[in-house]
């Protein structure tokens, strides 16, 4: 099991062949995941004084208006 700290997360991502970076402005680790030649930015945030880890990934694809309900 990984510890809930940025060093553990960074070391794990590196062991998986990813190249994590520290983003000072937001106090997050981020890396790019390449899927079918597209980059998906993935961000890791630890909430202070909590055991909560937040992962946010941005999906760089247009979304058809007809699919808004299904995505929501």
| Shape label | globular
The strand order across the widest sheet is 1-2-3-4
What percent of residues adopt helix (DSSP H or I)? 10-25%
Q: What order do the SSEs take from the amino end to the carboxyl end, as H and E?
A: HEEEEH
Which parts are unreliable, with pLDDT below 50 for 5 consecutive residues or more? none
Kindly report how far apart the N and C termini lie. 32 Å
**How many strands?**
4
Provide mean pLDDT, rounded.
90
Nearest-angstrom radius of gyration? 15 Å
Notes on the structure:
With 72 residues, the protein is of the alpha+beta class. It is built from 2 helices and 4 strands. The protein has helices at 6-15, 68-71, and strands at 21-23, 28-35, 38-46, 53-57. A 4-stranded antiparallel β-sheet has the order 1-2-3-4, with helices on one face. The longest helix is centred in the first third of the chain and has 10 residues, at 6-15. 0% of the residues are buried.
For the structure shown, list the relevant keywords.
72 residues; alpha+beta; 4-stranded antiparallel β-sheet; 2 helices; 4 strands; 19% helix; 35% strand; globular
What's this model, at a glance?
This protein is α+β, with helices and mostly antiparallel strands and 72 residues long. Helix content is 19%, strand content 35%.
How are the elements arranged and paired?
Layout: H1 6-15, E1 21-23, E2 28-35, E3 38-46, E4 53-57, H2 68-71
């Amino acid at each position: 099991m990984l510890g809930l700290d940025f060093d553990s997360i960074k070391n794990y991502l590196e062991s998986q062949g990813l190249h994590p970076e520290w983003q000072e402005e937001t106090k997050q680790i981020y890396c790019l995941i390449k899927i079918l030649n597209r980059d998906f930015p993935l961000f890791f945030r630890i909430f202070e004084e909590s055991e909560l880890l937040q992962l946010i990934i941005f999906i760089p694809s247009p979304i058809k208006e007809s699919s808004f309900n299904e995505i929501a």
